[in-house]
Write a structure and sequence with these properties.
Blueprint: E1 5-14, E2 19-25, E3 30-35, E4 38-43, E5 45-47, E6 50-57, E7 65-67, E8 69-72, E9 75-78, E10 89-91, E11 99-104, H1 114-120, H2 124-138, E12 152-156, H3 167-180, H4 198-209, H5 212-220, E13 223-226, H6 240-247, H7 252-268, H8 274-278, H9 283-287, H10 293-305, E14 314-318, E15 321-326, H11 345-354, E16 361-366, H12 374-387, H13 396-405, H14 415-429, E17 439-444, E18 450-457, E19 469-474, H15 484-493, H16 496-508, E20 516-525, E21 530-536, E22 539-549, E23 564-575
Parallel strand pairs: 11-12, 12-13, 15-16, 16-17, 17-19
Antiparallel strand pairs: 1-2, 2-6, 3-4, 3-8, 5-6, 7-10, 8-9, 11-21, 14-15, 18-19, 18-20, 21-22, 22-23
Helix pairs in contact: 2-5, 3-4, 4-7, 7-10, 12-13, 12-16
Length: 576
């Protein structure tokens, strides 16, 4: 059987001299990546009948942008014949150049017809792909990375929706499950409208990333990823009660092992540096097996049962910027409502070690915003206290039902973790953990609206830390617009009077005032968006772009793709 390219290539982790390229093929084979005399030859590994390769180009020139090819058993499969796109480039870092981080979350993969745009809005990843392709056609790179291009694309949560399926994915489930009933799957009784098994996750990822424009974008822009709840299931790990209730479903063990195993392959492996992959406790075992399905399943189940057994968070140093990408889902400690943690003990210690100075900018990305609108922060803190029994055991059950019903599960619902991070950030800004950075910036998504919040220490001697900007930058969604009613409620939550009222309620429940004081400085904005954080020396600024459907003359063709028109939504200087 001749092998072909099923998904990818995807340009993932890069350094000054290396570039990681991930692919999925449709049969075992040797994958080669070739760029300007540099070559990586890697045999595929197999998991549950699916075949993957992680290729590492080495000894590349710093700050380069080299066209590359992917070959399978010597045959070029990328670029595709007669491709209309500019060549895909293997990019490396230039630590002396400005750093540009594109970021966003919540991407619903569907078509681009007028009907799809009316339901989900314009796809911001596609809009960026078309913009970048046009820019490269106008100014073809000469081997060096263009100054205005993104250093990294950060996809911070809900890259796939395993519990909100498009019609094509529903049809796949119907057909694949009908064929698999005789293999014993029927006993799991999976829900009809959610993915459960590994082959279903593999198809979900394929459908999410096979769109031609997005596929090209991911092949040519270095990308880092974090999962959020919908990559596994809505409200994943909200509480100990949630974990116990979901585990009663006979299909859940299949779902969590498949979801975590697929995430490790499709998203996490590409986040790792060559040294980190070499030291990964799972990869060596996977490479040693003819089909490593059982190895991956065993690893995934252990990661679910013992979150401290594997670290999903990762750190990247880019020039004078330290980027820390924090897992806020799998590593949670939710067994005891009276001592919850957004992170487990080892993960908390690891994050604390990253929160130091001696950098120009400290950027902390997590799928969930660290600083929420003030009313939401106090509501979540109050709810956590009630669920822990501060107002008596009779209210713990209603408190838990409220927590799950309205998603009270952000950093502010984990006060112990929130306070630990706030304390570390204040000390960083005060110069107690090395020379203070120009900024400490939190990046977040999840909430389906975007905003900028600026913060300062409360009662800690603000003049001593005034040289460091502390801010929360949120960009969400990339494509999955918020229902109108929810948007109205979030606007109310942003009012100062609402925040004051809910803060009083939290104090009655014994919640301590946070060490940080903050307010929304810009936004909230609703609709699909993609943000760009630019860091140049000690200077930092952020911009949000949105897009509208092309206003071509005449009625839209219901079958034709709508072309997006990107527009700047807002721009704010953060430092400098």
């Amino acid at each position: 059987m001749d092998a072909g390219l099923r998904l990818g290539p995807m340009l993932r982790h890069v350094t000054e001299t290396t570039a990681t390229i991930w692919v999925e093929t449709d049969a075992p084979c040797l994958v080669s990546v070739v760029a300007d005399g540099h070559r990586a030859d890697v045999p595929t590994f197999t998991v549950h009948g699916h075949h993957y390769a992680v290729c590492e180009l080495t000894d590349l020139p710093p700050g380069s942008a080299l066209p590359y090819e992917v070959r399978i058993s010597g045959v070029t499969v990328w670029p595709e014949p007669d491709s209309a796109y500019p060549p895909s480039l293997a990019r490396t870092l230039d630590h002396t150049a400005p750093t540009r981080l594109l970021f966003g979350s919540c991407h619903m993969s569907t078509g681009h017809t007028p009907e799809a745009v009316r339901e989900y809005g314009v796809d911001m990843l596609r809009a960026e792909a078309l913009r970048l392709a046009e820019s490269r056609r106008a100014h073809p790179p000469d081997g060096a990375a263009a100054g205005g291009e993104p250093t990294y694309l950060l996809m911070i949560g809900d890259q796939v929706y395993a519990d909100e399926l498009q019609p094509s994915m529903r049809e796949f489930l119907r057909e694949s499950r009908a064929a698999a009933d005789s293999a014993g799957r029927a006993g799991a009784r999976p829900p009809e409208d959610e993915v459960v098994f590994f082959d279903e996750y593999a198809e979900l990822y394929r459908q999410a990333w096979i769109d031609p424009d997005i596929r090209w974008l991911l092949s040519t822009v270095p990308t880092l990823m974090l999962f959020d709840d919908h990559d596994i299931r809505d409200d994943w790990n909200t509480s100990g009660t949630w974990r116990r209730e979901i585990a009663e479903n006979p299909w859940w063990s299949h779902r969590i092992t498949s979801g975590l195993g697929a995430y490790w392959i499709y998203q996490h492996l590409g986040n790792l540096s060559p040294d980190e992959r070499a030291n990964d406790p799972v990869l060596d075992k996977v490479l040693a097996e003819e089909d490593a399905g059982e190895v991956v399943d065993s690893f995934a189940w252990r990661a679910n049962e013992d979150p401290g057994s594997y670290r999903w968070s990762h750190r990247h140093d880019i020039g004078g910027t330290r980027l820390v990408m924090v897992d806020t889902r799998c590593g949670r400690d939710v067994g005891d409502d009276r001592r919850r943690g957004m992170l487990g003990h080892s993960e908390s210690a690891w994050l604390d070690d990253q929160l130091t100075g001696d950098v120009d900018h400290l950027v902390v990305a997590s799928t969930l915003p660290y600083l929420m609108p003030m009313a939401v922060h106090h509501l979540e803190a109050w709810n956590e206290a009630v669920c822990a029994g501060t107002w008596g055991s009779a209210l713990r059950g209603p408190g838990e039902r409220l927590r799950q019903a309205v998603d009270l599960e952000h950093w502010s619902a984990f006060q112990r973790s929130f306070r630990a991070v706030a304390d570390a950030v204040v000390r960083v800004a005060a110069g107690e953990r090395g020379a203070p950075p120009a900024s400490v910036l939190f990046l977040g998504g999840d909430v389906h609206f975007s905003y900028l919040a600026r913060a300062r220490p409360r009662g800690r001697g603000w003049p001593a830390t005034e040289g460091t900007t502390i801010a929360q930058l949120v960009c969400s969604p990339l494509r999955n617009e918020l229902p109108a009613l929810v948007g109205k409620l979030t606007r109310v939550a942003a009012w100062r009077v609402t925040g004051a009222a809910v803060a009083a309620l939290a104090r009655l429940a014994g919640v301590r005032r946070p060490d940080l004081a903050w307010r929304l400085d810009a936004g909230p904005w609703y609709g699909n968006a993609l943000a760009t954080l630019t860091l140049d020396g000690r200077h930092a600024e952020v911009a949000w772009d949105h897009a509208v459907a092309s206003s071509a003359d005449g009625p839209p063709d219901p079958e034709a793709d709508v072309r997006p028109e990107p527009r700047e939504l807002a721009r704010h200087r953060l430092t400098g």
